[in-house]
Specification:
Distance between the termini: 51 Å
CATH architecture of the largest domain: 3-Layer(aba) Sandwich
Strand content: 5-15%
Number of helices: 15
CATH class of the largest domain: Alpha Beta
Largest sheet: 7 strands, mixed
Radius of gyration: 21 Å
Helix content: 40-55%
Number of domains: 2
Order of helices and strands: HEHHEHEHEEEHEHEHHEEHHHHEHEEH
Strand order of the largest sheet: 2-10-9-8-7-3-4
Number of strands: 13
Shape: globular
């Protein structure tokens, strides 16, 4: 039965993780894997999460199934976190999912059911799993221009020129904030112009919100999504709690459809049905942690303070690395790092230079140049700046 199946190609991120683990150099620097790390290189359990888990352990008296959509308190909490009351709840259909990855998959499955001929437009630089998830559902993807590599900012002209070609009924996948892998975010004006363009074209936005709170702040990071929800009849959303709650292992996500009020019940039933045929009931523990934190004023304030500490650390790493490279090279060619947001930047390096960083200096980044700013500490900043300086001098 299986003798004709070829071995799958190893995922680039997993391969990088394995190579880093096998490297015995004590000064190696891991900027590849997309997880938050503190100054000691650890991905900590947030204090608010530990406190919420203690409450759950004390009070929970059953492990029976919940609804196919997941816990109602979690879904309501995520709706408020993402949308901030921008639209009435009667327009929002949502289900819990095992992480943001499953949320993206469920939204793609929903698109396939509603309009199998739809094209999903995806930024030319994007999270590596977006295209495989779209392909797995049999949908067609098409790129639109996003990064201007000459300045490390948005290719605004190319972005809007490409989106002007979007067809009626097509879907445009947008990163809600902290664009992965470029760190380049849309401005509020960009979001407003995007909403107007999609309305004219009859297309539907699909917002992937994986890093809310890591860019300009919790509400500021959701401003683009909220503008779309307030001005367009239909918006699709996939969100993750892996980063902003540190719940990587618990796999906490939500898939959401914002629709006219008369369509909400139908969409909620369809999304629940998609859950039933893929994983049935979404996992509860992580979602229960989130809803416990969001519903308790003391825990919520504790979480907000921790999230701000994490955001400030990543922002500080960006500025420190840009300064260190400038001091090392006398050039501001990497100055864009300080202006970008979130955990990732796409460094202007070719494959040979990325391999040289890894082999000669123990600096691990993905082959396309994606570097995780949250993986840096003081020693890593200095080592990375020296290594990039050496690469630039050899050009």
């Amino acid at each position: 039965m299986f003798e004709t199946l070829p071995a799958p190609k190893l995922d680039a991120i997993i391969a990088l993780m394995q190579a880093f683990a096998q490297d015995s150099r004590p000064d190696k620097v891991d900027l590849g894997v997309g997880v938050y790390r503190n100054a000691q290189g650890r991905t900590p359990v947030m204090r608010a999460v530990k406190a919420a888990e203690a409450q759950i352990l004390e009070s929970q008296d059953s492990k029976s199934y919940l609804a196919l959509a997941g816990d109602a308190a979690f879904l309501e909490g995520m709706e408020n976190l993402l949308l901030g009351g921008t639209v009435p709840g009667a327009r929002v259909a949502a289900v819990g999912t095992p992480g943001g990855t499953a949320a993206v998959r469920q939204v793609c499955e929903l698109i396939k059911l509603a309009r199998p001929e739809a094209v999903i437009w995806v930024s030319a630089q994007t999270w590596p799993n977006h295209l495989p998830l779209i392909a797995a559902t049999g949908l067609q993807a098409r790129p639109y221009r996003y990064l201007d590599s000459s300045c490390g900012g948005l290719d605004r002209a190319g972005y809007f020129e490409d989106l002007a070609q979007v067809g009626a009924g097509d879907v445009v996948l947008l990163h809600g904030c902290c664009h992965n892998p470029t760190g380049v975010d849309l401005t509020l004006q960009d979001w407003a112009e995007t909403a107007a363009l999609l309305e004219r074209r009859g297309a539907v936005p699909f917002v992937d919100m994986a890093y809310q709170g890591f860019g300009a702040g919790l509400d500021a990071d959701a401003a683009g999504l909220r503008h779309l929800a307030a001005h367009l009849p239909e918006v699709l959303v996939a969100a993750s709690c892996s980063k902003n709650f540190g719940l990587y292992r618990e796999r906490v996500g939500v898939a959401m459809a914002i629709v006219p009020e008369g369509r909400r019940a139908t969409l909620a039933a369809i999304l629940a049905g998609l859950n039933r045929t893929s994983f049935a009931f979404p996992p509860d523990h992580g979602g229960r942690i989130v809803s416990t934190i969001l519903a308790n004023s003391a825990l919520r304030q504790m979480w907000l303070s921790e999230l701000e500490e994490m955001r400030a650390r990543v922002t500080g790493n960006r500025r420190a690395l840009a300064d260190a490279i400038r001091a090392e090279t006398g050039s501001d060619s990497f100055g864009f790092i300080a202006a970008q947001q979130g955990m990732f930047s796409l460094l202007p390096l070719d494959g040979a230079e990325v391999e040289h960083l890894r082999a000669a200096h123990g600096i691990y980044i993905l082959g396309d140049g994606r570097a995780n700013m949250a993986g840096l500490n003081d020693a890593g900043i200095a080592a990375t700046a020296r290594a990039l300086g050496a690469v630039m001098r050899n050009r």
